[in-house]
Recover the amino acids of this structure.
């Protein structure tokens, strides 16, 4: 079994972005339109096969189970994926580089757009959760003021302090995740 991580020259713990960047760089370097060296076409095909497997979480997990853990099992589904990746790589190797770039990068960009849309939904729901939590805390403090006859200044001060703390922590967390995701 071939080492797809070695083919893409990425570490075994590489994230999706690292794999995508390595693939883009190596595909540019070895595409037959750009590289006339003997073996460049085969290298390009291997690179694309590696990306087809490692660029998909489900396929990568199956590959890791078979390769990294050295499970010597006949995984028909993985063999099918590998065959599809090879056929697609052969197809891309026959294309002009311009057509190849348009096809592959449009696919990659649409995946990135879907990821960004999903991330925006997560951020929106996290923000709503923070706001709901803050509203509940504020409502509970007003309820205590009304039912327990505590001085309103202390309860309001405490509520606003909690509201600020939740809001600040929520904002910092969401901001940190947003910057981590976008980098």
């Amino acid at each position: 079994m071939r080492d797809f991580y070695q083919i893409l020259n990425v570490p075994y713990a590489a994230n999706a972005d690292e794999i995508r960047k390595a693939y883009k760089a190596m595909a540019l370097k070895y595409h037959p339109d750009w590289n006339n060296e003997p073996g460049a076409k085969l290298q390009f095909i291997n690179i694309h096969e590696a990306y087809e497997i490692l660029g998909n979480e489900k396929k990568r997990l199956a590959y890791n189970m078979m390769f990294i853990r050295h499970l010597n099992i006949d995984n028909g589904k993985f063999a099918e994926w590998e065959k599809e990746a090879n056929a697609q790589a052969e197809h891309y190797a026959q294309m002009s580089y311009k057509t190849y770039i348009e096809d592959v990068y449009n696919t990659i960009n649409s995946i990135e757009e879907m990821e960004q849309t999903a991330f925006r939904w997560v951020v929106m729901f996290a923000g709503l959760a923070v706001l709901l939590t803050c509203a509940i805390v504020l409502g509970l403090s007003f309820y205590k003021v009304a039912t327990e006859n505590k001085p309103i200044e202390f309860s309001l001060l405490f509520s606003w302090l909690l509201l600020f703390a939740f809001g600040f922590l929520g904002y910092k967390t969401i901001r940190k995740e947003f910057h981590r995701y976008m980098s």
Remarks:
- Residues 97-148 form the longest helix (52 residues).
- Helices lie at 4-8, 16-30, 40-54, 57-67, 76-94, 97-148, 152-182.
